[in-house]
């Protein structure tokens, strides 16, 4: 009864049949014993058969349901796998099972590992998306200026249907763009805050308080992330512009004060020690505004000190202005006097002094005008320098000429006396100097005319035209030369008459020799032998006179006519009066006579 080995389904059916047959046999035995009707027996057997069919039906239905669930599970796994492939952006997977053979359970078991791997990859990809998306949202919140940001995972919504690498790269590119923008904004914030610190230090303002007023996060002491929103950047930019405007205003104010200080210092001649205290203010005039960065250079205290100093100097200016005017007036007179230029008239200066005392004249304008006149006077003095040097040489040569004339008029100039040899040497030098006067006069006239043509004005020497002085000197010198020529002719006549008298004997005195008296009253004891050897005394004196005349000769044709002023005083009257000129001619005559009389002496 069951010793033969059969498959499980067959064995179960045989056991069932054996069990059912045994029970039917036992049932037949019972019926037989009881005497059950055949109809009743058929009915019972039919019931038993129906009940067996019901049990089988239930089992079959249950098996069908299990099979359906397996089919559904397999289909869902396939569907999920396919969806994961699509969401991850992958067309196929190497580990994906393509073999559909085997039971449902075998198929489910073959796809389960791949599905598990895909789910894991999806989870990792989701984490990547959430991380990138979270950073994007955070940076956007920072740019928007949101003080609080919820970075929890639940707050992040990621599209699970598109988790491809392409989409992830798009998110990463957006993140990188936002990071660059954030970096640029942070750099702007740093630049603006740095400018605020520098400008605040320059202007003497508390930079920390200024920055904190814009936003507390900008202060590093707060320890929170800096706000980089558009609003904060705009406020920072406005603050920097405001400080720049304030810097510009203060620089302009200090420039004005610096110029005022320079003008005051120049006007009242402030000592160097007092100026040093405000050199930092004056130096701002030559420093570009963008290079003024030293902390504390534009503080209100600096401006107040400069204003106080300008006010003090302004009060001091009024008391020293007259003194400065008189000093500049004296300086102008000194320049004009040294260069022999025209000096402002005393009456004009007196009128200006009265206006200064009355306070009706602008002193600053007056001093500026005086400075301009001094500058012009210096420039003109410089242009006159070369001419004035030659004028000085001419005046010295003229003085030597006068001394030589007086020396030649001295009857005892050849006598042996103390200092005579020095006079002889000076006379020799004076003759050399006098010979240079014509060339010097020519040069002076040429240079003076060029100067006058260039400047379109007359060259004045102590208020007298220099050309007039030179030309009058030329005329006077020519008159002297003409007078000397006339005296020489007269002297020749006198000498000839004297020789005739000395050669003709008088009655009763033929054997007696009378000594010759010269024109000056001296006697000549020269022997005839000496006279014969050296020529006649008259010839020697004439030769000497001719030599001196040659020394003083000069060609007036190269010079023009002009007007001469004696000395360095202004011309108020003619230089030589008629009586003086006559006396001078008498002196010249005596000098010429003295030259040709007396014993002969060595030539000078």
TrEMBL record:
Report the subcellular localization: Cytoplasm, Cytoskeleton
GO CC terms in record = cytoplasm; microtubule; spindle
Segments carrying the region annotation (Disordered) are: 484-558
Q: Keyword Cytoplasm, does the record have it?
A: yes
* Coiled coil segments of this chain: 161-195, 226-253
Keyword terms of this UniProt record: Coiled coil, Cytoplasm, Cytoskeleton, Microtubule
Gene Ontology annotations of biological process type: microtubule cytoskeleton organization
Family that this chain belongs to: Belongs to the MAP65/ASE1 family.
* Protein name (Swiss-Prot/TrEMBL): 65-kDa microtubule-associated protein 8
Q: What is the lineage of its organism?
A: Eukaryota, Viridiplantae, Streptophyta, Embryophyta, Tracheophyta
